[in-house]
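User: Some background: our group keeps a shared notebook of sequences we're curious about, and every so often someone picks one and asks for a predicted structure to add to the entry. Today it's my turn. The entry only has the sequence so far, pasted here. Could you supply the structure so I can complete it?
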Amino acid sequence: MNLSAKTEYACLAMLELAQQFEVGEPVQVRRITERHGIPAPFLIQILQDLKRARLVTSTRGACGGYRLHRPPKEITLADVLDAVENNTEPTDCAAVHSPLAPVLMEVCQEIAASRQARLEGITLENLVEQACTTSGPMWYI
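Assistant: Of course. Here's the predicted structure to add to the notebook entry:
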């Protein structure tokens, strides 16, 4: 599965907000851009998409920033991808006159349904927990 830069940045931003959710304070855009190397103007556009999808809320001011709208255990990867991707699965076939086209469309629809079900089963909380266990301690010599 290939993620566009926009989708990858949205996921990284949401994971950063998920890590900071328990703190209860908004996370500044600058922190996300510095920590994850996301261009600030692009991140602001992405955060606006996430806000329209009601996945994040924003706070203005010097101590402002963004927070998750719901707890990380209630937000799935499917929610994030739906908010930033404009992908729609094909509903018809270009080779409409081919007797084999319906079989191909059926397989594509099954794959899309399987992908969606998997994404709906992965929460931000799952990913943050996984990141914490896989990063482990760093040893310096």
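Suggested note for the entry: The longest strand covers residues 56-59. The radius of gyration is 18 Å.
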